[in-house]
Design a protein that fits this description.
The protein is mainly beta. It is 13% helix and 38% strand. The termini are far apart. 21% of the residues are buried.
Length: 357
Amino acid sequence: MSLVKTNKAVTMADLMKSVTTNFVSPHKGDLLEGRVNKLSSSEILIDIGAKSLAVVLEKDKKILRSLLGSLKVGDKVSVSVLNPESDFGNTVVSLRRFNDERVWEKLEVLQKSKEKIEVTIDEVTKGGFLVSTRNGISGFLPNSQVSFLDTAVAVGKNLNVCVIELSRPLKKVIFSQKATVKAQDFAKQVAHIKRGELIKSTISNIAPFGIFTLLDSKDGQKIEGFVHISEVAWEKLENIPQSFKPGDEFEAQVLGADKDAKRINLSIKRLTTNPYEEKLKEFTIDKKVSGTITRVSSNGITVDLGAGIEGIIKKEKIPPTVTYSQGSLVEATVLEVDRNQRVVLAPVLKEKPIGYR
C-alpha cells in the first residue's frame, strides 16, 4: 500500500488575491463616518476604515475643549477630510463640522427647556458681555438681560444664564441671566423697596433711551434699576446728558417694580418741582393756541407751544387733504393735557372737509 501526496506551491500573489480588502480611500473634502479610537489632550485618533487611523487636527482651543469634554472612546462621529495622507501616512481630519452640529442641537434643546447653564465672561463691552460655556458655546449677554449682579463684574466671572435667542445662519446666541430668576425670587428681592421712596443707586450702563443702575437688596446682592430718558429731566431730552457716567451714584424716586424686566423703575426728575405744571394749567379745553411744527411723522405732528410746552396733533385729527411741514405755523384747539404732560390738539380748519370728525 502506498500513499500519494500532491504538493502545490502557493505564491505571494495567490495569498494577496485570497484576502479581500474593504479599506476606505479618503479624498480631500470627503465627509466620512468613524469611531473615536483615542482621546487625549495631545492626540485624537479616529477609525474611519482606512489603512491607518485618522488624526484630528483642531487649532481652535475652544473646539478642542468641547470635544475632550463631551466625547469618549468608541463614540461614533463624522469627520471632514483635510488631507488624505500626511507625511506619516495618516489621514488628517477635522471634527469642526461635527462639533458645530452637536453644539447647535444642544442650544436648541437648552432654549426650549430654559435650563440653566454656566458661562464665563470673556470680554466686557459697552452693550453687555461676551461669554462662553465650558464646552465652547460662545454668545452675548446684553446689559438688559443682566440681573442681581455685584459691582465686581469682570472677565473670568461665572454666571448662570439661559438661552433666549438663536440664529444659526448668523451664528448668534443671546443669553439671559434674568431668565434664570423666578418671579417669586424677584418679588422677595424687591419686597423692601416701596413706590415713592427715595433710593440711592449706582450707574452701571448708559443707553440712548435711559440709564441702567444697580441697587442694593437685603441679602447684599444687586438689583437692576432703570431711569427712562423721559424721567431724567422735566424738559424733553434727545440724549442722556454727558454729566451721567458709569460708576456715579445718585438719588432717585422709585416708580415701581417691573416684574417682566425684573428691575426697579426710577425717576430723577421727580425729585424736583415740575416747572411746567403751572404753565400747563393755562391750556384749558377748547382754548385756541398757535405754535411752530417741530416734527412731522406717520403718527401726526409735534408742535412747539413755547416755554418748553409740547403739543401734538394726532394723525386721526388731520384730514387726508391737509398737509403740514416742519417749521410752519399752525393754529389749533386744545383737547386735553395727557399724562405725559403734552397738550393734545386739534387743528383749526378754515373749511371742514367732508367726513372730518
